[in-house]
Amino acid sequence: MADSPPVNSAASWLGGQAPRAIGLGRSHLFRVIEAALDPFILVGTLWGLALYGDGRMTPACLILGVIVFSLSFPGASQLRLSVARMVFNISFHWAWIVGLLLLIGFSTGYVNAFSRSVIGEWLWLAPLSQVLAHLTLRRVAPQLLRLQGPLPRAVIVGMNPQGEALARGITGSDYAGIKLLGFIDDRGDERCVKQDKFKLVGKIDELSDFVKSNRVQFIYLSLPMTSRPRILQVLDGLKDTTASIYFVPDMFITDLIQGRSDAVCGVTVISVCDTPFRGYSGFLKRSSDIVLSLLILLLISPLMLLIAILVRLDSPGPIFFKQRRYGLDGEEIVVYKFRSMVVTEDGSEIVQAQKKDARVTRLGAFLRRSSLDELPQFVNVLQGRMSVVGPRPHAVAHNELYRKLIKGYMVRHKVRPGITGWAQVNGQRGETDTLDKMQARIDFDLDYLRNWSLQLDLYVILKTIRLVFKDSAAY
Questions:
Q1: Per-residue pLDDT tens for 58-116?
Q2: Domain boundaries along the sequence of the chain
Q3: Class of the CATH domain delimited by 153-254
Q4: Which of 81, 152, 315, 461 is the most buried (most CB within 10 A)?
Q5: Euclidean distance between CA atoms 287 and 293, whole angstroms
Q6: CA dihedral angle for residue 241, residue 244, residue 249, residue 255, rounded to 10 degrees
Q7: CB of 364 within 8 A of CB of 337?
Q8: Can you tell me the distance from the alpha carbon of 262 to that of 61, in angstroms, rounded to the nearest whole number?
Q9: Burial 232-251 (b: 16+ CB within 10 A, else e)
């Protein structure tokens, strides 16, 4: 395994922590504040500018305020994200709202009912006010927690990796709103995973008495799902307490890919491994691929023509290199690239390019380092074989090798392969000369499947553009 596998990294990109990491205590104060903060800021700035600029509140502004509130409520949680991630999220959602409003406004002529100066100032003041409001909330959040009185107390039953991950989340957050008393476990300190920060406070048989004597409000059961009799025994012993009880699933559950409940012929089922692109999400993903690939092909067509001429002049051989790859559901597809080597290998054994590889042409070295050799793959996107963002496709020979060595390797083919991917923008680009490097790449690919969103795709695209000018991992 890699030294630092990307646990929930897609949910915490740009350095933030996963927004669904842990509840906010008994009052859920911050959930209420964050749900209302963005809508009130957007509407408040609009109405404030209208009163200041026009001296009155017009019916058009009142109606627009109601529309904006409905589009932005409830506001997203930003408290545990990094500042950069927060600014990106606010900008993304604001751009979406503005784009929709302008489209409706110009198509209906409704835009003429507003003062141009008021709308112009609102376009920059509203998101700036959102950022300032969220930064202020971060500063005052600890004080708000203290004003609520003593923090609710919690214990975790089962000192194991998932229980310790929860404990680190509680103790490492300024906004958790929970006081962790410790772990309940039948094993002694010498058998539990050592953690200086956490302590054992009792045995499982003593749980009910401990909860009542210490006024514990939250109990997190971090027992293996195979311990069903033990879990039932614990639940039975807690029936005479008023504590809220939660399950902390073990790795069998947390390793689900797009886990969700469904019904088949009236019977409830839970997906263990599924694609994130079902129904509306699938339509959104494919639509964005078509629009982006068409736009990009129009913009880069002169560049592609120039590269094609240079490839022809640089060395003998075809302009394009066609290679068989695995696509959606493991079906073979043909992927296009500008030829960057003197050979066009596509057999049962393929040697990955290495530094100072003699097979790479003079022009090919530049094309590979800058990723310009992959531009023809936007045609693959239009064909429906690939996506703009997704797990990078590997040669068939490499797939057949690594599917036997890495658990879950083929799960990455639940989606279309991408021109760029979450692994590539996190440093997993270039030669995978060790099993650990390929394992790290697969970890990021599966993380992308678990946490896909249109925002994540946009972030990957923007970061890919930046990496094209500075990344030296490809050769």
A1: 788 888 888 888 888 888 878 777 888 888 889 888 988 988 888 888 888 787 878 88
A2: 10-147, 153-254, 280-468
A3: alpha beta
A4: 81
A5: 10
A6: 180
A7: no
A8: 43
A9: eebeebbeebebeeeebebe
